[in-house]
Amino acid sequence: MHKNVTFKNPWLPYLLVLPQMAVTIVFFIWPAAQALKQSFLVEDAFGLSSEFVWFDNFVALFTDPAYYEVMINTALFSIGVTVVTMVVAMLLAVMADGVLRGKRTYQLLLTWPYAVAPAVAGVLWLFLFNPSNGVLALALRTIGYNWNHYLNGEQAMALVITAAAWPRIAYNFIFFLAALQSIPRSLIEAAAIDGAGPARRFFSVMFPLLSPTTFFLVVVNLVYAFFETFGVIHTVTQGGPGTATEILVYKVFKDGFIGLDLGSSAAQSVVLMVIVIGLTAIQFKYIERKVQY
Q1: What radius of gyration, in Å, describes the C-alpha atoms of the chain?
Q2: 119-166: pLDDT as tens digits
Q3: pTM score of the predicted model
Q4: What distance in Å separates the CA atoms of residue 248 and residue 222, rounded to the nearest whole number?
Q5: CB neighbours of residue 248 within 10 Å
Q6: β-strands 41-43, 50-52 pairing
Q7: What is the torsion angle, in degrees rounded to the nearest 10, for the CA atoms of residue 237, residue 227, residue 23 and residue 267?
Q8: Does residue 132 sit within a domain?
Q9: Which UniProt keywords apply (predicted)?
Q10: I need a surface site. Which of 71, 137, 182, 267 has the fewest CB within 10 A?
Q11: Backbone angles phi, psi at 51, to 5 degrees
Q12: Nearest in space to 76 (alpha carbons), one of 263, 225, 205
């Protein structure tokens, strides 16, 4: 039997959700509406005059081959960040969950990187892989691998993926560890009694029970890679060499704030928003069906 919650004051529920609604309207809905409006305009650099041009900004985008290259960069970058963060975080969570002595210390150390801002993480990895005096770059040189992400686009993409994934691993680790600790130990012990080895126990028993957490993390990691990694790109490569690491969110900034093409920048932000909403909808429609709750 379900008991409905009742409020003595009929306006109290609306008052309770008002702060969240205000934040959503001011910081999400209103900027999105402004971007949509601006995407149909051509404005001068100072915003003193504008002309309504319908879909000309979108037509210019989708007839520009360079924009498709940026889309490919974004796809590679977002997939790379999502895969690296989830695989490494799951491995660390499984290892930390099996530690008996000093478990809390390991867990604390593995969650610390989450406190590092993306831009700061980018600077740290930039120092480590500096071609002239970076510790890791020099170490690679000693084994015969010449590292110079200023000239090599593939190396630059690998660097920004690493820099963006490193602090995010801690976020994924927290969720995977909590999910692992919620699995009844009796199931794992029963599989061990039946003769299943560690790998078989993980893939046959533990991993299916982690599917809700895995699905959630896939969604939030993709959103993170699309929207929250501007600081990494800006501090590490600034989209270079050439446009090898230029992703959609950085191109919005580059064209709008550096090139002062406000209409095109707004159109790009609308396209980016539609892509992320579409990917999220597809994940919930098709991938969620395979999630075992």
Answers
A1: 23
A2: 899 999 999 999 999 999 999 999 999 999 999 999 999 999 999 999
A3: 0.88
A4: 13
A5: 22
A6: antiparallel
A7: 100
A8: yes
A9: Cell inner membrane, Cell membrane, Membrane, Transmembrane, Transmembrane helix, Transport
A10: 182
A11: -135, 130
A12: 225
Which stretches does DSSP call E strand in 37-102? Answer: 41-43, 50-52
Task: Report the half-sphere exposure of 6 (CA within 13 A, side-chain side).
Answer: 3
Q: In this structure, what token pair is assigned to residue 262?
A: 């406000």
Query: Domain total for the chain?
Result: 1
260 domain-assigned: yes
Q: How many Cα neighbours within 13 Å face the side chain of 187?
A: 15
First to last CA, the chain: 23
Per-residue model confidence as pLDDT tens digits over 88-104: 999 999 888 876 666 77
Q: Identify the H or E element spanning 212.
A: helix 211-227
Distances (CA, A) of 67 to 25, 52, 53, 74, 205: 30, 23, 20, 11, 44
Note whether residue 233 is domain-resident.
yes
- Give residue 76's pLDDT: 96
Neighbours of 158 (CB within 10 A): 16
Q: Report helix, strand or coil for 51.
A: strand
DSSP E strand boundaries for 94-236? none
Supply the range of the domain harboring residue 68.
56-286
Question: What CATH code is carried by the domain that includes residue 128?
Answer: 1.10.3720.10
- Residue 231 C-alpha from the chain's centroid: 12
Here the tokens at position 78 are: 């977002």
Answer whether 254's CB lies under 8 Å from 242's CB: no
Give the helix, strand, coil percentages of the chain, each rounded to 5: 75, 0, 25
